[in-house]
Amino acid sequence: MSTAIAVPDSVPGKLSRADSRAGKYLTFQLDREEFGIRVLQVREIIGLQEITVVPQTPPYVKGVINLRGKVIPVLCLRAKFGLAETEYTARTCIIVLNIHQSAGSMQLGIVVDAVSEVLNIASGEIEDTPDFGGSLPAPYLLGMAKIKGKVKILLDIDQIAGPHDIQVAHYPVSLT
Fold this sequence. Notes:
five-stranded mixed sheet, disordered N terminus, globular, 4 helices
């Protein structure tokens, strides 16, 4: 006679990966997909403004903006994710984020097609990212949230912007 023993998924007092990912997310659109980033990292959402191009940067680095006297690097997530370029619309905007790197914290702007809403995502609504065969390294994917029959891709914005991407903020640039 065998006895089944229930083993808890997590140790009491410790957060499982899904629990650590639960919380409030700002969702936005790129093409037909919806993505989410932690609200706590969002500083503000601004309309498009003139972006100063910085030479010799990767194609997804749009350049820098002058935000109240501070130079902020701006990335295009469409280009970073390999999506086709599209015309900007009235809903296209820049999300200004506080990101944390080994060199410290800084602000970064990301261009998105449209901001959707703020969602409170519970741990039970988050699944790990599927295995895409090991050829797709994506450390910036936190997981997949299942909300109202749709999937929203949760991003770790600190992993999306590498140190080489954000060094543009240290280049001498005229923002007149």
